[in-house]
Amino acid sequence: MHGDGGDIYWRRRMSVLVAVLVVVAVVAWACSSGGSGPERTSSAQSSPSASGSTAAPTTPAVDPLLAGLRTLAMGTASPSPTPSPKAAPSERPRRPGEPCEEKDLVLSLQGGREEIFAGGSRPTFLVTLVNTGSVMCTADVGPRAMEVRITSGADRIWSTADCVSGPGAEVKELQRGVPYVRSLEWDRRRSSTDCRSTAAAALPGTYVAVARMGRMRTSKGVFHLR
């Protein structure tokens, strides 16, 4: 019994060993066959034919994916140059004494803000114009060009541009950073463009004063007459 068991054990071991050797032999044969295939084909193609003409070289197949990538690379490798935008012409330097540009002017109005004028007292205002440009410039600060207007709701009550005697223009030189200041007093009477000789007195109520010059407007000064 013991001897038969030992024979069976060794027979099984020999069967496993033979199976492993067979697998190794098959793998070795497959590798040697795959390596020799292209060499035989290459030698057959390189040998001249019986008629003496040389066989045309075969064109290797191109992977469609690689071909697409090459085309994309050729299209983006050297893009056509984009023309650079033309540089904007530089501004001519300002010369002293030229008319001021609005972008270089700061207009402000002081006085009358939230004040109550009773007993016939007259509102007073200060109009300030400052040149912030690089050089001295000139500006018309006359009562028409630099107007102070008083309104009450939609009613135009009074304006420095009404009934101006003479040319009305007043050109001033504005040095950089040096404010031009004009003080004015309202007599509490209405004004009109037709210059009537008798001006009616303004009624008690709330009024708004604003200085205007070209497209510039100051903040509103709200005050009250009693």
Describe the structure.
The protein contains 2 helices and 11 strands, in the order H-H-E-E-E-E-E-E-E-E-E-E-E. The chain is an alpha+beta fold. It has a domain at about 100-225: Immunoglobulins (Immunoglobulin-like, Sandwich), CATH 2.60.40.10. Strands 2, 5, 6, 9, 10 and 11 form a 6-stranded mixed sheet that branches. A hairpin with a 2-residue loop joins strand 5 and strand 6 (about 155-160).
Concise structural overview:
By secondary structure, the chain is of the alpha+beta class.
How would you summarize the topology of this molecule?
Layout: H1 2-46, H2 64-77, E1 105-110, E2 115-117, E3 124-131, E4 137-140, E5 147-152, E6 155-159, E7 171-174, E8 180-185, E9 205-213, E10 216-217, E11 221-225
Parallel strand pairs: 2-11
Antiparallel strand pairs: 1-3, 3-8, 4-7, 5-6, 5-9, 9-10, 9-11
Strand share of the residues? 25-35%
**What is the rounded distance between the termini?**
138 Å
> Number of DSSP strands?
11
Kindly state the percentage of residues in helix: 25-40%
Task: Give me the Rg, rounded.
Answer: 51 Å
Shape: extended
Number of helices: 2
Order of helices and strands: HHEEEEEEEEEEE
The biggest sheet, with number of strands, parallel, antiparallel or mixed sense and barrel status, is: 6 strands, mixed
Helix and strand composition category: alpha+beta
The stretches of 5 or more residues where confidence is low (pLDDT under 50) are 35-62
Q: What is the CATH C level class of the domain at 102-225, in words?
A: Mainly Beta
Mean pLDDT: 76
Q: Identify the CATH homologous superfamily of the domain at 102-225.
A: Immunoglobulins
CATH topology of the domain at 102-225: Immunoglobulin-like
The CATH architecture of the domain at 102-225 comes to Sandwich
